[in-house]
Design goal:
Two copies of one chain form a homodimer.
Chain A: E1 6-10, H1 14-25, E2 29-33, H2 37-45, E3 51-53, H3 58-61, E4 66-69, H4 73-83, E5 92-95, H5 103-110, E6 116-117, E7 119-123, E8 143-147, H6 154-167, E9 171-174, H7 177-200, H8 213-219, H9 226-235, H10 237-259, H11 263-286
Helix pairs in contact in A: 4-5, 7-10
């Protein structure tokens, strides 16, 4: 499938802005809607979009063959509830949310039947926000996950695939909403919960002068946007709690080996983690 | 203090080899002792050392004004017990161990009175081992910590400082053994315990294709040398257990906020961790 020509980005933040940049470069006519007039002005001034508004979105939406919602989960649902009447008949709609459970079902439950919502998740991001940091190069090494449900059509899935291809994602895969959220609970949300908890465990700012790479690497993602991440955590609460429990049990096992003076067990844990990490590197290299 | 001219490295691994390279470049006459003839040959062939042996260390040690023990904690204590009679009178001895409690006291307790052991910790390393990977450039951004006791003299401390200076460490500081080990328990050992436990929590190798930077960063250090790290963990067992407990309580607090639907508390934790991490970046930038 060719990418639709006219694409509107709703929510022009870091991701929305990077989509705009990439899609404009790919030859699409890109417009944008954002509450912040400064974001629209920046995107127009820097050639990321051909048109944009911080006011009435109707004139842009009625021309858009596809819409990318670059919004936080709750804002996404609210925006669609309020504005779905403005979408062009046959429009394809996708999102950038990091969690799918609850959101996809809700949206597909209330959306107009002549419009298709196909969920997708660009696994890319940075510790900054705002269109001013937009850069579609960040998609090059990243994964793009398409999350179809039984309500989606081959046309919707092909659109998501074409979108990811145009944006230059290295890997495009497809998962069910449940598979996606379980995986995300482990590889993304648990790691953020750990980084935040490590930073909060003690007032460690005075240790800045002693830290090496390991501490820096582990806590880089502790600089977290509280509104976005609390929405994502609550949207995936059960998976994340299960992952935290499993990790805490693993750490407790290591502590017990240490407390019991069980050197053989401690070494076994180290050998296992080193072997898994090597296998992991190998699989990544093979991709 | 000028660096002593003749320095012998005992244990020619990644760190010992990198010391050899840096000290040879700094103009010292560097020799080395290692059990592995291949390591000595490599260092000779590549100009890291002027002399070396995998057999009788006596001829090299009797000429050495200073000795750097690039050995694991237990091997260090055993080597000194066995070979201290071979050291040159007045020799200065230091180490590279990542934990000081137990080791420094033990060594200073049995060492000949005409030889001084001044403990130090180069906070640098990589996930590989062996002299073949030696590269003194790794010291440039790193911390060097001198850990004197009441048995050390100004001459011993000045030697450690001159050594770190010649190797090009960015920051040279001084801590007591107790301060050092408490700090290390948090910034290094706890982070390794977390990475290992995250890798061990579940068989996650099939997730390699979905992981982003955060998971890769958090688990990079899970590729761990089981002999070295079990020695280091046991040598600092009480500090590390206390740090694990504190971190586990912090993670449990986050989980409870999630389980109770307490969005305000979850956001407070995110804001706190983000603020601390920003302050931390700031302090590192100011250095």
């Amino acid at each position: 499938m060719d990418l639709p020509n006219n694409i509107c980005i709703v929510g022009l933040g870091l991701l929305g802005g990077s989509y705009a940049m990439g899609l404009t470069r790919a030859g699409c006519t890109v417009s944008a809607v954002d509450l912040r007039a400064g974001a629209i002005r920046y995107a127009l001034d820097n050639g990321l979009i051909a048109a944009g508004t911080a006011e009435d979105p109707a004139p842009l939406l009625e021309k858009a063959d596809a819409v990318v919602l670059g919004l936080y989960p709750r804002a996404l649902v609210e925006w669609l509830q309020k504005n779905q009447g403005l979408l062009k008949p046959g429009a394809l709609v996708t999102d950038v949310c990091g969690v799918k459970g609850g959101i996809v079902e809700a949206v597909q439950g209330f959306l107009r039947p002549d419009v298709e919502f196909i969920a997708s998740h660009p696994m890319a991001g940075r510790e900054v926000s705002g269109v001013e940091y937009a850069n579609c190069e960040m998609f090059r090494p990243a994964n793009f996950i398409i999350v179809p449900t039984e309500k989606n059509t081959p046309r919707g899935i092909a659109f998501a695939r074409a979108l990811a291809g145009a944006l230059g994602f290295a890997h495009i895969t497809q998962l069910s909403s449940a598979e996606h959220d379980k995986m995300i609970g482990y590889v993304s949300q648990l790691t953020h919960a750990i980084a935040v908890s490590l930073m909060n465990a003690t007032d460690n700012t005075h240790l800045a002068e002693y830290t090496g790479d390991s501490f820096r690497d582990l806590t880089r993602i502790a600089k977290i946007n509280e509104q976005l991440w609390s929405e994502l955590f609550f949207a995936n609460r059960e998976n994340l709690i299960a992952e935290i429990d499993q990790f805490a049990a693993s750490l407790e096992g290591l502590k017990q080996a240490l407390a019991n003076g069980d050197e053989a067990e401690l070494k076994r844990l180290f050998v296992q983690s080193a072997r898994r990490r090597s296998l992991f590197d190998q699989r990544q290299a093979e991709r």
